[in-house]
Amino acid sequence: MTEITKPNLSGVAETLLITLYIRATESQRPDALIKDERAEAIVRQLDPESLQKTLTLTDDFSRVAVILKTREFDRFVQDFLARQPDAVVVHIGCGLDTRFERVDNGRVEWFDLDLPDVIDLRRKVIGGEGARYHLLAGSVLESAWWDRVRVHKDRPFLFLAEGVFMYFTEAQVKGLVLGLLENFPGAELVFDAFSPVMRWAHNVKVTRTGVGAYLHWGLKQGRELERWSEPGAGGIRLLDERYPFQYSVPRMRRALKMRLFPFLKTAICVYHYQFC
């Protein structure tokens, strides 16, 4: 009999249950856009009462956003590892995502980074470290974890931050990005961001429902980050930007009706940068 675990999470950390639940339910569909059998297994290990809050946020918009963003992040990693098979990937704010298992090429060195209570939960319901798989417990805004990954400084680096930066202030995001630029030249960064309008709409919903966490940062244009670096110093170069809601997914036609409105069509984006 599977042992039931009750997550002891609050605030932003608690939102990881929402994305986990959405991935698990999507994976169960015969026409699933992402297959994540580990997510299904993890949900079965968690206390059902702890998942009740997720049901209030699994509307069509939230569900489609999580599914399409997850698919884009997986594609970005797979493309990167096709170019750099011996790379190091650092997954910032990993939550209970099992992306390493979905994209592992047998050579990548992988670090999952999150707050200590989240990493403790990962160890309970997913497991510990492996030969090429490592766990980092701490805040991404503190530089203590840099030394753990910098031992691989001669290898290419990819940093991922899915559903993370929007919970920070602009000053916090800028400080982190410039720190990565200085310490990991040549690295690539992939993260998602809400537009300022979508950030506002999300916060209105949180106020109305009392569920979820407030967002503090929105990004209007991907080129904005290129202006963060000092002239003459290392630069930040935008490589790609993908708006998940621009894709035509027949099964989700009803949920994707928002594509008819330009400000909704570009409300969420996955950005890809390189530190030059």
Task: Write a brief structural summary.
One of its GO terms (molecular function) is methyltransferase activity. This protein is of the alpha/beta class. Helix content is about 35%, strand content about 15%.
Describe the structure using short key phrases:
Rossmann fold; 276 residues; 37% helix; 10 helices; 16% strand; single chain; globular; alpha/beta; 7-stranded mixed beta sheet
What do these coordinates show?
InterPro entries: Ppm1/Ppm2/Tcmp, SAM-dependent_MTases_sf, TcmP-like. This protein is of the alpha/beta class and 276 residues long. The protein has one domain (59-275): Rossmann fold (3-Layer(aba) Sandwich), CATH 3.40.50. It has helices at 16-27, 37-45, 52-55, 60-83, 99-103, 116-125, 146-150, 170-183, 196-209, 262-265, and strands spanning 88-92, 109-114, 133-137, 157-161, 188-194, 236-242, 268-275. The protein has a 7-stranded mixed beta sheet with strand order 3-2-1-4-5-7-6. Strand 1, helix 5 (99-103) and strand 2 form a beta-alpha-beta unit.
Q: Assign the CATH class.
A: Alpha Beta
Mean pLDDT across all amino acids: 87
- Helical content stands at 25-40%
Beta-strand content estimate: 15-25%
Largest β-sheet summary: 7 strands, mixed
- Unreliable residue runs: none
| Integer tally of domains | 1
Nearest-angstrom radius of gyration? 18 Å
Number of strands: 7
Would you identify the CATH architecture? 3-Layer(aba) Sandwich
Order of helices and strands: HHHHEHEHEHEHEHEHE
CATH topology: Rossmann fold
Number of helices: 10
Specify the CATH homologous superfamily: Vaccinia Virus protein VP39
- What best-fitting shape do the alpha-carbon axes yield? globular
- Spatial order of the strands forming the largest sheet: 3-2-1-4-5-7-6
SS-based class: alpha/beta
